Amino acid sequence: MEKRKLGKNGPEITTIGLGAWAIGGSSTSFSWGEQDDNDSIKAIQAALDSGLNWIDTAAAYGFGHSEAVVGKAVQGRRDQALLFTKCGLIKDPDSRDAVRDLSPASIRRECEDSLRRLNTDYIDLYQFHWPDDRTGTPLEESWATMRELVKEGKVRYTGVSNFDVALIKRCLAVGPVDSLQPPYSLLRREYADETLPFCKENGIGVIVYSPMQSGLLTGKFDINKVAEDDWRRRNRMFVEPRLSNNLAFVERIRPIAERHGKTVGQLAIAWVLMNPAVTAAIVGARSPQQVVENNGAADWRLSDDEMAEIQRAIVETEV
Ligand SMILES: NC(=O)c1ccc[n+]([C@@H]2O[C@H](COP(=O)([O-])OP(=O)(O)OC[C@H]3O[C@@H](n4cnc5c(N)ncnc54)[C@H](OP(=O)(O)O)[C@@H]3O)[C@@H](O)[C@H]2O)c1
Q1: Number of domains in the chain
Q2: Which of 136, 167, 149 is nearest to 158 (CA)?
Q3: Does 17 reside within a domain?
């Protein structure tokens, strides 16, 4: 599988990395329902066996459970897996929700906990999960803490997620930003106009999340098969009338995938990888079968005609 450099100075990463949100289990208000840890471990191992060289997780996913499962799965093969994780969303003591906290003490505490759960002594890419609009910590102090963690050897590269250009510039004034992790899919294109070109111009790597819109664009999505406590049941993308419109869009683009003997999910991943600012896609999978199928997108380049056909479908279905 093709590898690309993450930003100016980062590691060479495969164009697909494994996303570990769904394998966090059902303990949070943003869970994907029950998940068997054995399936998760098999999925991670299948990803590494197939040549994917990085995994994206976060302390918030299952409040540590996802990191613990990743740590277990990469035992004995740490050299084959770049570990990307995130801080800044901590458990609300009174609920199953997460709250934002990028205060230096909290970042340091979270970093130690992540190192322990991942069973490693360094994190390859440490990322801010969301901007902190709650504790009043100046972003400059938060970013300086991240850069200290690099100097201390606990973290190799530092990135941000869900940050706009103004916030990224504030980090850049303190020290390097190696990557951005934004939402980007056929159904979510709001970062494409300003933020992605800014990253390209400034040598900031981009690893996009939810390229299949959390399952909606796989071509197999059925809301009736989604668990009662799965966050998707309450998300605006998955609620009527938008759900039916999104699924009508999937049917519109299905023939493009089928002409190549591919799935709509593979088409959705291939499409995000066509954006020149995008380094790689974070693709979630809950089983080895899903991993193997999704990898079929990696080296598929869409033609100009196909890109235009997809653009027409976006406009005409108003997604
Ligand atoms: N920074 C952030 O704020 C943020 C936010 C969201 C995601 N992320 C990261 O990005 C990663 C990927 O995003 P995502 O998990 O939301 O979405 P995604 O990659 O668009 O979709 C993944 C989901 O689609 C379904 N799926 C995957 N492969 C499939 C296949 N071959 N056939 C049928 N269904 C398939 C699975 O769920 P079902 O089988 O249950 O349908 C899977 O969990 C996350 O794991 C996380 O690491 C980060």
Answers
A1: 1
A2: 149
A3: yes
Nearest in space to 35 (alpha carbons), one of 294, 292, 297, 284 = 284
| 181 pocket-lining for ligand 1 (C-beta < 6 Å) | yes
CATH of the domain at 311: 3.20.20.100
The number of the ligand 1 atom at minimal distance from the alpha carbon of 86 is 1
Give the integer Cα–Cα distance in Å for 219 and 251: 8
Does the residue 3 lie in any domain? no
At residue 56, the pLDDT reads: 99
Among this protein's residues, is 61 annotated catalytic? yes
As a whole number of angstroms, the distance between CA 163 and CA 194 comes to 12
Q: Are strands 54-56 and 16-19 parallel, antiparallel or unpaired?
A: parallel
* pTM of the full structure: 0.98
* Residue 218 CA to ligand 1 centre (angstroms): 10
Please tell me if the CB atom of residue 179 comes closer than 6 angstroms to any atom of ligand 1. no
Evaluate: CB of 211 within 6 angstroms of ligand 1: yes
Domain that holds residue 131: 9-317
Let me know if 287 is exposed, middle or buried by CB neighbors in 10 A (0-12, 13-18, 19+).
middle
Is residue 252 included in any domain, yes or no?
A: yes
Q: Is 40 in the pocket of ligand 1 (CB under 6 A)?
A: no
Domain assignment of residue 1, yes or no: no
Catalytic residue among 61, 184, 191, 209: 61
Q: Is the CB of 214 under 6 A from ligand 1?
A: yes
pLDDT in tens, 248-268: 999 999 999 999 999 999 999
Residue nearest to atom 10 of ligand 1 (CA): 209
